[in-house]
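Students often ask why inverse folding is considered easier than folding. One informal answer: many sequences map to the same fold, so there is more than one right answer. In these notes we will look at a single instance of the problem. The structure comes first.
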């Protein structure tokens, strides 16, 4: 039994998901004739209360398209220091859109409306033009933390006052919705564009969707094409998304529960310095200074348990759909032996 807890992206489609994929009705999506892609897009647009949705091969491409839709070269986007768009999209913001990021050092990946106001550049020609604010929920690098919705509302007001776009990187919005008992509609109401991933907690092999109203989304399909993200019979992939929306959202609670249980066990170990608060499916922890990160990872790997380091002494465990109860019990019992 191999227990892979490096990421929630390691899941493979279940039998039932595969069967839904095999039965999909498909067509050429470049002609917009794939009924399953169209169904997935319509369903998600309705779910978030947006006029349009567009299916993408990756979350990175959906985010990069959003950045392009909201900005002109030379502009600046406000985001957290640990934002995915800044750290993990290969510098795409500058490469694709010619924009820079104004970083806010938020708390647990979240910043305040006041910090946004302070980060907006003055309206003078020699400043970079601030045109977009980007929020990540849950905040990946900060340990899957959920935003406070009231703060998002306040930031929205700031965006309106300063004529700024508002984009949500909702790669793991599903985890936040379940953990905080919020609705997709609430997010649709405040953000101009939202990217969501189907290939993380929801267990699809591939797929992300960008959502927005018609005006902002007008050029989305052209930009997706420029990025090379047009697909043909993508309905086989969209069918996995439809299956996941029906079956894999509510069960995220199990991932969250197991993550909390793992965190509790880690807290008891003397070799561990701190475990960051766990709200969803990501556990970030730090070893004591005298314990080698490499040795700890190897010790687990020798027992077929795989986790990853995040740099600066932090380690990460992510629970997911393919992490079963048997695996969970085995992991907890192995961690207990580390207490010696
Ligand atoms: C995974 C992820 C994405 C998109 O990543 P892809 O691997 O390109 O699908 C975007 N934002 C966050 C916060 C993520 O965790």
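Output (designed amino acids):
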């Amino acid at each position: 039994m191999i227990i892979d807890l490096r990421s929630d992206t390691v899941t493979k489609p279940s039998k039932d998901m595969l069967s839904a994929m095999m039965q999909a009705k498909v067509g050429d999506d470049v002609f917009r004739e794939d009924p399953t892609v169209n169904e997935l897009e319509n369903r998600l647009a309705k779910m978030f209360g947006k006029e349009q949705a567009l299916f993408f091969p990756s979350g990175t491409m959906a985010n990069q398209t959003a950045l392009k839709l909201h900005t002109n070269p030379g502009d600046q986007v406000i985001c957290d220091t640990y934002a995915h768009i800044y750290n993990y999209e290969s510098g795409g913001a500058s490469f694709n859109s010619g924009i820079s990021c104004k970083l806010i050092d938020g708390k647990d990946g979240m910043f305040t409306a006041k910090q946004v106001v302070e980060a907006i550049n003055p309206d003078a020609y020699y400043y970079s033009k601030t045109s977009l604010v980007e929020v990540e929920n849950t905040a990946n690098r900060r340990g899957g933390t959920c935003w406070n919705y009231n703060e998002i509302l306040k930031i929205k007001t700031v965006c309106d006052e300063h004529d700024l776009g508002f984009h949500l990187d909702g790669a793991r919005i599903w985890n936040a919705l379940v953990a905080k008992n919020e609705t997709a509609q609430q997010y649709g109401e405040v953000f101009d564009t939202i990217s969501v991933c189907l290939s993380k907690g929801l267990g699809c092999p591939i797929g992300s969707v960008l959502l927005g109203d018609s005006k902002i989304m007008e050029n989305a399909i052209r930009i997706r094409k420029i990025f090379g993200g047009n697909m043909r019979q993508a309905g086989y992939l969209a069918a996995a998304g439809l299956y996941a929306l029906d079956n894999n959202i509510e069960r995220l609670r199990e991932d969250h529960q197991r993550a909390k249980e793992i965190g509790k066990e880690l807290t008891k170990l003397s070799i561990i310095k701190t475990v960051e608060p766990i709200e969803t499916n990501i556990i970030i922890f730090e070893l004591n200074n005298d314990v080698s990160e490499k040795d700890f990872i190897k010790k687990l790997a020798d027992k077929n348990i795989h986790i990853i380091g995040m740099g600066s002494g932090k380690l990460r465990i992510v629970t997911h759909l393919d992490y079963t109860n048997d695996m969970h019990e085995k992991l907890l019992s192995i961690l207990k032996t580390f207490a010696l």
